[in-house]
Amino acid sequence: MDLNTVVDIAASTIRVSTPLLFAALAGLYSERSGIFDISLEGKMLIAAFASAALAATSGSAVLGLLAGILAAVVFSLIHGLASITYRGNQIVSGVAINFVAAGLTMILGQAWFSQGGRTPTLFGASRFAPIHLPFADAVRDVPVLGPIYSGVISGQSILVYLAFLTVPFTWWVLFRTRFGLRLRAVGENPAAVDTAGISVTWLRYRAVIICGVLTGFAGTYLSVAQAAGFTRDMTAGRGYIALAALIFANWKPVPVMFACLLFGFLDAASFRMQSVELPLIGPIPGQAIQALPYVLTVILLAGFVGRATPPKAGGVPYVKER
Amino acid sequence: MSRPYAKLPPIIDYGVIPLINLVVAFLVAGLVVLAVGESPIRAAELMLNGAFGYAEGVGFTLYYATSFVFTGLAVAVAFHGGLFNIGGEGQAYVGGLGVTAIALGLGGILPWWLNLPLAVCLSAAFGALWALIPAYLQAKRGSHIVITTIMFNFIAAALMVYLLNDWLKVPGTNALETPTFAEGGQLPKLRGLFELFGANLGGAPLNVSAFVALLACLGVWLLIWRTRLGYEIRTLGHSPRAARYAGMSELRLVVVTMLISGGLAGLMALNPVMGDQYRLFNDFPQGAGFVGIAVALMGRGHPAGIIPAAILFGMLYQGGAELAFDMPAISRDMIVIIQGLVILFAGALENMFRPAIGMAWARFRLRETGPSAARTGGV
């Protein structure tokens, strides 16, 4: 395997990891506040659709991004309404949102654009184009570091950089601000937060809204930066993979990044691994590699590799008085 | 607002509230139809007509409903035990292997009526097997069953594509499907039965597995409400601590409940594989496992509710297909929205109208009993 292949795989790992990272961090805020969210998938999907639709009609990628965020936040609020205000089952609500998003994107996509659920192809200013960092071309010929800088670090879309910057930012918010402390507390022991005179409801709503904003970024990245337009069911289970990464990383921001990179790498490498022959076993079926993130998650959840400890009050609606 | 919800009489709890939730779900779906520029009323008319307007449509509606009864029961049994089985899709998919093993292996040797019970056993066994690992991991290692069953859906999809592509497909072809089963592996259609009543089912694939579905309903009712195991499952669902205190083994109950749930989901494979296409094909459950969630929630976990709920979704499926001819803007995907809205309003938001309905009920009660109470109180 030569350097070019490594650079290629690394670059595509970064690209594939970005939506996972946004979505997993989105889930991090929500779940740390005690709201389980399996609707990351649906929110990403509706955001991908809304952003591509507006980017196509307005010709502006930024407007698209705003539409994506708005759509995802609306869906987040529905989830919040069901699980915070009306104390419904958070899993059921998440499942519902995934279905509504899947159906809505298909129906509206067909009705508005009549291209079998696709949005028109985006080009020019209606997409987030790759950004070429300074000196990328100049250092290309420097051995090892040159290709890595120009091929992996440079030439990504602005959303990619944003995603990776969100990781330290999230760490700072969660572990170094008052809001973060309260957010973590409300996911562990809402009664204590309530006793301190802080509104459990408002805290959780804020967490859910942040979750919506970040899934908005995730979806927009898929359709307006990585691809040039929305296609049917384009998230293809990425929301669940992000959820898996979140659990894998034990609900901590920096490990979340590594988990997303790992799952992204598996995805990026799966295409190349199909022809690799293992001794004794023979060629690895492509499906085995596709299934690997899911299998890994199951093994991890089972506590064979480290132990997943979810926020204590996760999934339990808070009742003020009994 | 944050008071626990008041207890309401059963007629309101099981009748009025679910009905209102359902109506709201359909009203919102109507808004979506309006948003794409079509008339919801005409859409509903076309849909009803497509699903029930002629015998063949009814046949298709009941054919889809058969699949949804199986998956709905699967989700419902798990719900009674306080478990959320989202893995019905994967369990049904893997259950297809059991059906195929019998139909492909014995289809040329035994008649269908001997193969059917064998296929029932084996498809249930395969579906149960696919639920076993998530169940065991939940009970023994505390991993969340919702996440593991979702993961197992994806693993099932990868596994089945691998098996179909590398082992089961007809050599030299590209289609991901097994060879067609011999005659003994084909369940008879119910065409003849309906002709006795003068109805022509035409090409509708309604088949004998519909009766298996009805038997499964009876079985689930007996199990949950008339056996010791069912009592234990419900205890576990209401209060795991009470179950533990009463000396019930949580590990055993979780595993057994999920095995039954997975087995019921696995039975779903009978309908499309052995009853309609006569071969195992790529992605045959086509979301039926997920429809089961909506069906179980709408049917409130009771077979008597699950059957009408499954027929309703069968109607949406068949009527939706017909609708797409007349209103190209509305495809069968509309059912996915409705499914989501039903899960949302009948499941997650079931408490939304409860306070208002509770208050209306209290006022109604007060007016009924108020004057007499005042009279006796005045003495």
TrEMBL record, chain A:
Q: Does the keyword Transmembrane apply?
A: yes
Q: Which UniProt keywords apply?
A: Cell membrane, Membrane, Transmembrane, Transmembrane helix
A single MF term (Gene Ontology)? transmembrane transporter activity
Location in the cell: Cell membrane
Q: Name one GO cellular component term.
A: plasma membrane
Q: How does it sit in the membrane?
A: Multi-pass membrane protein
Please tell me where this protein is predominantly located. Answer: membrane
Record Pfam families: BPD_transp_2
Which superkingdom, per the lineage? Bacteria
For this protein, the parts annotated as crossing the membrane are: 6-28, 62-84, 91-113, 158-175, 207-228, 240-266
Q: What PANTHER family does this protein map onto?
A: GUANOSINE ABC TRANSPORTER PERMEASE PROTEIN NUPQ, SUGAR ABC TRANSPORTER INTEGRAL MEMBRANE PROTEIN-RELATED
User: What is the protein name given in its UniProt record?
Assistant: Nucleoside ABC transporter membrane protein
TrEMBL record, chain B:
- What CDD domains does the annotation carry? TM_PBP1_transp_TpRbsC_like
Specify whether Cell membrane is a keyword of the entry: yes
Q: How does it sit in the membrane?
A: Multi-pass membrane protein
A Pfam match is BPD_transp_2
Keywords on record: Cell membrane, Membrane, Transmembrane, Transmembrane helix
Q: Where in the cell is it found?
A: Cell membrane
Keyword Phosphoprotein recorded: no
**Where is it predominantly found?**
membrane
This protein's GO cellular component annotations are:
plasma membrane
Output the Gene Ontology terms for molecular function.
Answer: transmembrane transporter activity
TM regions (residue ranges): 12-37, 57-80, 92-110, 116-137, 144-164, 204-224, 251-270, 329-349
Which PANTHER family does UniProt cross-reference here? ABC TRANSPORTER, PERMEASE PROTEIN (PTHR47089), GUANOSINE ABC TRANSPORTER PERMEASE PROTEIN NUPP (PTHR47089:SF1)
Task: Please give the name of this protein.
Answer: Nucleoside ABC transporter membrane protein
Q: What species is this protein from?
A: Fulvimarina manganoxydans
